[in-house]
Amino acid sequence: MSKANPIDELRAQVSTMLDTYAPEIPISTTVVFKVIKAKEDTFIKNATALTEATRKLPGCNLFAYHKLRTTDKASEPAEFLIYEDWETTKLFRTQWDSEHLKSFQYSVVDLIAALPELKWYYGWSDAAAR
Asked: Percentage of the chain with pLDDT > 70?
């Protein structure tokens, strides 16, 4: 019997969580990736493609990634933050179920030193005030 893919498990947990939110509330998330130094260029390439595809989706107020810190130690991973802000949970669900996000998530499994750290925020946003 094969071990479950940790990305599949994470995706299932997030889907279950999203089911508990009202579809019309604004939502945003931060995700921190600890990327193996030798694989950082591949991560950046993949994150750039994800960013370009995501920004085209309706309801995306902001999607960006940033490198959090650098270190000279090759053994320490580089940290990247992805931030995204959505007009509604329903529109974020389109992103969550998109092929470009799934492709990115599965592509990073071999690039990261640990599972990504996700934080969720929901409720009022600047988009709601427009």
From this structure: 90
